[in-house]
Write the structure tokens for this entry.
Amino acid sequence: MHLHKYEKIWLAFGIISLIVFLSVVGVSAFHQGNTPSGGHMTIDPNKVRETAPFDQTGLHERSDGTYEMVIISQAFGYDAGDWKVPVGKEITFTLTSEDVTHSFSIVGTNVNMMAIPGQVNHKKHTFKEPGKYLIICNEYCGSGHHFMSAEIEVVES
Amino acid sequence: MNQSMNLPNDRRLPLANTAVAYAAFLIGTLCGLLQVFIRNDALTLPGWLDYYQILTAHGLLLAIVFTTFFIFAFFQAGTSKALGQFGPRVILWNWIGFWITLLGTLLVVVMVVSGQASVLYTFYAPLQAHGLFYVGLALFVIGTWVQGFALIGHYVKWRRANKGQLSPLFAFMTVATIILWVIACLGVVATVLFQFIPWAFGWTDGINVELSRSLFWYFGHPLVYFWLLPAYMAWYVVVPKLIGGKVFSDSLARLSFVLFILFSIPVGFHHQLTEPGIASFWKFLQTVLTFMVIIPSLMTAFSLFATFETRGRQLGGKGLFGWITKLPWKDVRFTSILIAMLFFIPGGAGGIINASFQMNELVHNTLWVVGHFHITVGTPVAMTFFGLTFWFIPYLTGRQFTKNLQRLAFLQIFTWSIGMLLMSTAQHMLGLLGAPRRTAYTGYAHEDALAWFEGVLSNHVIMAVGGSILFLSALLLIYIVIQLWWFAPVSDQESKMTFPMAESDVSGTPALLENWKVWIGIAFVLIALAYTIPLSEIIQHAPPGSGRFQTW
């Protein structure tokens, strides 16, 4: 099989860029911890409110000074207590759904999580600026999908 | 009409497929037009129709029905040209497959229109459509398999009669695409047969949502290559003939198709990067495999432009870029496809961004993704199909592609490009600003959401302008199709349209490239590597199943 000289250069350039791209993505993910949201805990989708931690939705301070915000998504809204979180603190969002698939996306941040029935999703985020952030469901969930939104207030602690 | 009844079966079969394709195209694009107006509050639907019904119809009719039927029309006409006329059995099975596919399609459309299947084309559990919707999908897939295997039967017969020879490039590529399609469908068939149908009819109570999603996306990504490879066939085999050239390299063309079989399937997790239930390691592994398709894509880009340059220089093009002016720009069959290729440059680059693991969080489920697939399947693939249509229908009906129709075709291509440029640019930018996809309404009460109406290009109104131009372009295309089918003057010997199929020199092509057992074997090894452990984890750690929900 014959490869033209220019094609060799072109493919070498492409493959080297590919390796560079993937290395950047991989180092950022596994060395610096920038992985997309995920989780490996499952939950009975029919008993969400009886199961910890979803029996107590809202913000909880942990002993190490970080926070966890426990959220249940349902058609067509979220249950997450009073929607106030401190600025500059690491917050772990813990999310599931008690009916269909939804998402929990905070506009202007990297928080963009799928809420899958039966699965628990996690994402760590630290807000750098106080203010009010828009939360939307960006995964189709039914006739009220476009009304499924909320606002989270980031306050000085 | 009378004349088309006398057409040989080799022609009637692809015409039947083309007819369904363009019927779906007309309704599908109309749904698209309605969507952009509803999103801008410029249109209120009557009570019996809702936005998500239209959205489901738009996605299914254009991304699945239009593409699949057109692809089979192209395959049928092309293989009978490349390998010789179909025998009676091949024709019979192709017809049976066509009717099964059509029956499945109609069942799905009836369920969507009657409001019992507003589950979008990704039909996410635990949203539960009417059981017949899933039966329709299963029939659709089975019908395409029957047509696909009928074509493979024709190919096997040719191979037996021509022992030791490589098949013509068009036939090779058809077989590669059908293999890809059959392997890809295994995922969706598994979830529909074993999860959705028993659950929707009430035979089982719960569904494992994460498993159904994973099986869907096992199918959902190679599906895009099922759309793309026929467009690549046009680029590799049809376009060189249109410009009077040859295939740049037969072996590289075949190699790139083989690589697409290997690397387009074990990659579905890159649609599920932000969801729980799959460990980061497996998401990242599939990200790496996803990126491997960049190699055959770069090979394709090189081959195509090398063909253009070689031919341009033969025609006397001088200097670094002089050859460009020598290409047949006045031939809309060529120009349309060239523009389609250019759209694929940002389209492909956007795809790399989407699949880039953590970067996906920025764009996942935003309008960016909608912009992305409108400049991949919506233009490079669709406009290549338009470019094929201009000669394909005259070829099948024996009519002329007149000068007037050629001018209209230029207008059609031009308006589609402008409309898509406006709409998809707006969608990409709005997506970066956080605007969600799949929403009937865009007026969230927050300043970030108000900004989605303020940009010069990043504006929902621009999206609607683009969408309107696109619909006009679609109507123009339908007009051209109708003219070419029934009204254009019948061609004589001189003006007769032929199927452009470029010469491809197989003398340097290793026979290994056409040893399907090897490539299918490697494909399954890669699939097993990428999927066995994460899928068995999802099954072993399955939560109690989800019930049936109809939230629309």
